Amino acid sequence: MEIFVDRDGEVVLKKYSPIREMGEFAKEYADSLFEATGHITCISDRDTIIAVSGASKKEYLNKALRPAIEQAMKEKKTIHIDIAGEHALCNNCPENEGEDKCNYTCEVIAPVISQGDPIGAVMLISKESNIKMGELEIKLVETAAGFLAKQMEH
Fold this sequence. Notes:
Elements: E1 2-5, E2 11-14, H1 23-37, E3 40-44, E4 49-53, H2 57-60, H3 67-75, E5 79-81, E6 106-114, E7 117-126, H4 135-153
Antiparallel strand pairs: 1-2, 3-4, 3-7, 5-6, 6-7
Helix pairs in contact: 1-4
């Protein structure tokens, strides 16, 4: 928890997010992953998406995390959803409720683990029907997550 005093002398409490400190760096890394893969790339802290590339910032930035992202962080494991909407983690996802089913076709999520604790996640997402993600995309998000974790430790 961070404590600030604003211009009017009011005390402001703000939840500390170590990965949010890397905001511009995370954005640049997301841009690089998007340029290399063509897939929507998002980076989150423990609560919200903090960087997005390849899609509307309005659609993703500062949005709450979906259950699959939370699960990847909780289990400290990469999650590969090859048919979005049909994966078990999609059952409780708000994106998959009602008549408007999930518009993702597949995604890969890797947790950012720093000093043994999950502090965020890196995601590659596709909305294109003919796209499949495999080992390459898994390695890319795991490498990105590992790199961001190392940056946080220094």
